Amino acid sequence: MPNPVSRFLKFVVGSRLAQFLFLVHLLLVIYAVYPLPLANWDSWGSGGGCHGVPIAGRVLFYCDATGLLGTIATLDVVAVALFGFFATPFPLIGPLFWWVPEIGFQGFSWTVAIVLLIVTSFQWMLIGACLERLLRRFARNAQV
């Protein structure tokens, strides 16, 4: 019997709809984030009462995001909330890693961008795999 984790990953990654949603999400995120202005490294956290999230050398202010970027940020809210939930304890355990060198704003913003991209892409791959299985089940029941 295969490992349950490997079966789950095969289910998610093996779906064509999941791969399609992953590719569409990746292209839309790159298209939406690239035009954002580069961040001021000294004061990037204040956006008129809105919390800024550093992403790839830029800062995304969720409450000011409009158009495609606002739509993507809204659709990715579950993955972003999970990321924030798991990232919250890191400042508390940070002093335990005093020997790790400071990465600075650029390193931090690219780390956030990569982790968010992985988490949000997995979210869309999971949605695609579940939708594909649901559609196949409906198609099979309709043929019977």
What would your notes on this structure say?
16% of the residues are buried. 64% of the residues lie in helices and 6% in strands. Strand 1 (52-55) and strand 2 (58-61) form a beta hairpin. With 144 residues, the chain is mainly alpha-helical. Helix 2 runs antiparallel to helix 6 and helix 4 (77-87) packs across helix 6 (104-143). The chain has helices at 4-13, 16-33, 67-75, 77-87, 90-93, 104-143, and strands at 52-55, 58-61. A two-stranded antiparallel sheet has the order 1-2.
Summarize the structure.
The protein is mainly α and 144 residues long. Helix content is 64%, strand content 6%. It is built from 6 helices and 2 strands.
Secondary-structure map:
Blueprint: H1 4-13, H2 16-33, E1 52-55, E2 58-61, H3 67-75, H4 77-87, H5 90-93, H6 104-143
Antiparallel strand pairs: 1-2
Helix pairs in contact: 2-6, 4-6
The portion of residues assigned to helices is 55-70%
Shape: globular
Question: C-alpha Rg, in Å?
Answer: 19 Å
Seen as an oligomer or otherwise, the chain set is: single chain
Biggest sheet, open or closed, and with what strands and sense? 2 strands, antiparallel
| Binned strand content | 5-15%
Give the low-pLDDT segments.
none
Strand-pairing-aware structural class: mainly alpha
Strand order of the largest sheet: 1-2
C-alpha termini separation = 30 Å
Overall pLDDT level: 79
Number of helices: 6
- The number of E-state strands comes to 2
Q: What sequence of helices (H) and strands (E) makes up the elements?
A: HHEEHHHH
